[in-house]
Amino acid sequence: MKYMTGNEIRKAYLQFFKSKEHLILHSFPLIPENDPSLLLIGAGMAPLKPYFTGKLVPPSYRVTTSQKCIRTDDIDNVGRTARHHTFFEMLGNFSFGNYFKKEAISWAWEFLTQVLELDTDKLYVTIYPDDKEAYDYWHNMIGLADERIFKFDDNFWEIGEGPCGPDSEIFYDLGPERGCGKPTCTVGCDCDRYLEIWNLVFTQYNRTKDGKYEPLAKKNIDTGCGLERLASVIQQKESNFETDLIFPIIEKVIAISGGDYNDPRQKMAMKVIADHIRAITFMISDGILPSNEGRGYVLRRILRRAVRFGRLLGIKDLFLAGLVDTVLDILGDEYPETREHEALIKQIINTEEKQFSATLAQGMELLNDMMAHVGDDKVLTGAEVFKLYDTYGFPMELTEEIAGEQGFKVDKDGFQEA
Ligand code: SER
Questions:
Q1: Whose CA is nearest to atom 6 of ligand 1?
Q2: Segments forming the whole domain that contains residue 362
Q3: Which residue has the least CA distance to atom 7 on ligand 1?
Q4: How many angstroms does the Cα of residue 338 sit away from the middle of ligand 1?
């Protein structure tokens, strides 16, 4: 395995698939176009749905992208694990009724083992139990031993109605020192040892409204490979956060806060901030502004969470906008739209950080008081949580997280009612 920077890995991926006759497309914006079912783009395939369904004719039947993605369903895990993010880049190669399993599998293997030079002994795959075709390609064409091919029922990728199908995931063994040590530890274990690095989806069905799976006339390929994960493997880092795609931001946070990355609580706060400033920068550059609903609320929630973790690190002044330069140093060449909106991004961040900072300390005092006087059930009432939201600008989820850190819960239904 040779060392490559994150930017080099992205480029190598796109160029590799270009050499396999794929058209390189620039990342689609984070705001979905003509897709009311999605708030934000969270996967490489999401903006390509009309090409999969045949609604639109693609500019090429083979496409490759590095797609900007936002996922916030697991936001509470960000900073606590090695690989949860709100913003990440998903590398993907896509076939719209063109090639299928054979090429997808052989090219994924070729890229991992010949371009990135990953050690084949560390690679494992999973497939859908019924997928004999995928098994044959992995076993007979690639030559992967049977014990390296795992069959799991949940190897099926779908989002609601529409194109879907069985998938095959590729895992990298980070070694026993990263594992849980249990004798049962193997691919599929919850621990960090086996890292999923690539998901190959064989989009061969259309899921109808009433839950039927109809075979598609034209079968598609949708693959997703997380750039930050791949970088953590190639750069041999403990987590995605130590890769050159993110760590310079953490170094800047250390410089501003004078904090200690070896202290677990501070480390978590620094990871949260580094993750969130990437999301904030990209969301604003794609035209999202903080607000109390929809995408704007997602942005506000991320931004305020980052501010709170900055204060936990002891940073008293406005600091978030000061991190944008580092994000642009790393990603600005690949995503020029971020540089184009640099001034706006900084201005929006400063305004929002200033506003929230003005009420954060008072809100925290009130929240601490509420927690001190809570009933035996340790649940903060909807009215209390609403007061924090309405008067002090605490997104409900932020209150929930802070309260949760101390063993308290919030009445979410009551909050909605209030
Ligand atoms: N759609 C699949 C995923 O998001 C593969 O790209 O994992």
A1: 224
A2: 246-373
A3: 224
A4: 25
Determine the distance separating the centroid of ligand 1 and the alpha carbon of 43, expressed in angstroms: 6
Q: What is the pLDDT of residue 206?
A: 85
The SS3 assignment for 298 reads helix
Q: How many domains does the chain have?
A: 2
d(CA 170, CA 278): 27
The span from the CA of 330 to the CA of 245, in Å, is: 6
| pLDDT at residue 140, rounded to an integer | 98
Residue 153 binned pLDDT confidence (cut-offs 50, 70, 90): very high
The confidence score (pLDDT) of residue 248 equals 98
Indicate whether residue 43 lines ligand 1 (CB < 6 A): yes
Quote the ligand 1 centre to 158 CA distance (angstroms): 9
pTM of the model: 0.94
Counting from 1 in the atom list of ligand 1, the atom nearest the Cα of 46 is 1
Name the average pLDDT for the chain. 95
User: Does ligand 1 have an atom closer than 6 angstroms to the CB of 199?
Assistant: yes
Q: How far is the CA of 157 from the centre of ligand 1 (A)?
A: 7
Please tell me whether residues 18 and 54 are part of one structural domain: yes
Looking at the structure, tell me whether residues 216 and 320 fall in a common domain. Answer: no
Please provide the DSSP assignment of 219-272 as one string. EEEEEEEEHHHHHHHHTT-SSGGGSTTTHHHHHHHHHHH---TTSHHHHHHHHH
Please state the atom number of ligand 1 nearest to the C-alpha of residue 159: 1
Instruction: Retrieve residue 311's tokens.
Output: 């204060």
| Mean pLDDT, residues 165-183 taken together | 95
CB 185 within 8 A of CB 144: no
Q: What's the 224 CA to ligand 1 centre distance in angstroms?
A: 5
> Confidence class of residue 82 from pLDDT cuts 50, 70 and 90?
confident
